[in-house]
Amino acid sequence: xxxxxxxxxxxxxxxxxxxxxxxxxxxxxxxxxxxxxxxxxxxxxxxxxxxxxxxxxxxxxxxxxxxxxxxxxxxxxxxxxxxxxxxxxxxxxxxxxxxxxxxxxxxxxxxxxxxxxxxxxxxxxxxxxxxxxxxxxxxxxxxxxxxxxxxxxxxxxxxxxxxxxxxxxxxxxxxxxxxxxxxxxxxxxxxxxxxxxxxxxxxxxxxxxxxxxxxxxxxxxxxxxxxxxxxxxxxxxxxxxxxxxxxxxxxxxxxxxxxxxxxxxxxxxxxxxxxxxxxxxxxxxxxxxxxxxxxxxxxxxxxxxxxxxxxxxxxxxxxxxxxxxxxxxxxxxxxxxxxxxxxxxxxxxxxxxxxxxxxxxxxxxxxxxxxxxxxxxxxxxxxxxxxxxxxxxxxxxxxxxxxxxxxxxxxxxxxxxxxxxxxx
Length: 424
Ligand SMILES: *Cc1c(COP(=O)(O)O)cnc(C)c1O
Hints:
With 424 residues, this protein is of the alpha/beta class.
């Protein structure tokens, strides 16, 4: 795709778009929620469906001319059902946050109680943080991870559920390096007659590929973002049993959204089709293998990982013991300067603050899309270690930047040589 027409109409935006393409090509995207979609998904997302109003659902729209929108949405739904095995799927949420809003609106009243994981322990804003609508509309209590193990404190969760009597228990997290025991959360929710929402935003791809146990059929509701590990068009998704279908659908539209972003729904359909191919299962397994290799090498360099390792696509590094004078933000900035883009992150038992946290979070979904294997991830870990050990040393950073440049040209974006998924 070229931006020739944007350039003609609007050179300033064309510069930024080309700048972004170059940035993605020439840096390592290690923000754990990010990925690189295929050119097919990009094309679908830039289609004329952006012009179409399709309020309602396939076969029951409020406007004329929806036959192609219907086809695209039905395909997205069908493929999602095949990927995750849900009875009912809604592919219209504009984002993962909107998907969660859809579930809350479907089954909660204002003032009802949500039990969810604390944000600084790996939870998400939309699970009830005071700065988010969910924290403002509902009464929220939060469970934590065990400070010694870094694993979800399931026993604490169960006790809190008994004491707090929540209407819904939320599982599924943003910065949690271990596989989630959805059955155990379900048992705790069931014991107090609460719904269970499993938010698999980060691990949609790992669940679809069978690398992680699925909460579909266990939890009452499963939500996700569609642009993270599943690598489809940008947005959200809700899955549930048929009995909740009408409540969920009307909570999304007209409850909380207007017209669906049909061009993004097209991107979801195309990405889901790609994820149904056998290559995708290998991709998802490689994502986890890569995170493990990255984490083990970082440990060899003296870094401490929350929970002592990873079962997922990410590692959460607690810098406090190994680098007491290097907060996460300093590490993030030094790494960005050499072309490694990841984020500072709170760690369980945070002793600094949410704005100045003590950890960094690093994910492998986007690197794996570029074709990175375990060896390449170990090289990345070596670079991260050198830079975080000496964040102010310009000669170390110059050497690190050269190594990142080499990795980027060895594993080019959108050049399929060595890539796990053939996007052509
Ligand atoms: C990323 C994420 C979401 C939703 O994010 P959007 O940016 O709104 O798509 C929801 N829950 C969790 C746990 C997440 O990590």
